Amino acid sequence: MRKPIIGGNWKMNRGTSSQTVEMLKVLKPLVKKIDNVDIVIAPPFTALESAIDFTKKTNIKIGAQNMYFEESGAFTGEISPQFLVSLGCEYVILGHSERRNIFNESDELINKKLKKAIALGICPITCIGEQLDEREAGKEKDVIRNQIEGSFKGISQEDFEKIVIAYEPVWAIGTGKTATPEQAEEMHQYIREVINQKYDEKVSNSIRIQYGGSIKPSNARELFKQENIDGGLVGGASLQAESLYAIIKAAVRY
Ligand code: PGA
Q1: 105, 168, 185, 188: which one is catalytic?
Q2: What is the model's pTM?
């Protein structure tokens, strides 16, 4: 059985040490006894160190929201994956739709970052998802297939097993419009089908696929009940410890 994973993507919403510790102080005791859901918080770079220090020896893991694919050099403004490793960062979100759409990140770039993250032992939460016009044109599956082909190009089966995928329909991110559990499940099933064709059934059955896009305590359980949805990547609702905790609880499989 796949272990659900809940990621809290704070985006650029809370970035000081004190704000971060304040939230984690509330979350830590709430989730203390949860051992059957992986919990990852991804604050901005400026709060990574304090988040990692504060969650040492707990079941809360810390992730970055992005990284570069080179380890060092003249890349002003970029963050080396090696810096993340030395901080103790265990996860990194790659290819988020905001990176793809606002910062023009291509599948090719995401692929380079993905390979580097795997090589350095950071678990990449890799995002894929279609835009509203693509869904309205009935092209969502083609878009997803292309993103899988591009972002995961040249990844060996052994490395592929180290990845977490987040399916995030762009039209559902931060809009309050969640995909229905059936819509999400259909896409998750499709993603497994593509992975099965690319690798094999063992990989497609074992890889964890999160849903992302306006997850709230009120809709989380219905989404996570779907057979192919293994938790979620949560934006807005991950900023408050109580709402994130409610979402984490909804992911527990009894
Ligand atoms: P949202 O963001 O939950 O605020 O829609 C999800 C995401 O961007 O990962």
Answers
A1: 168
A2: 0.97
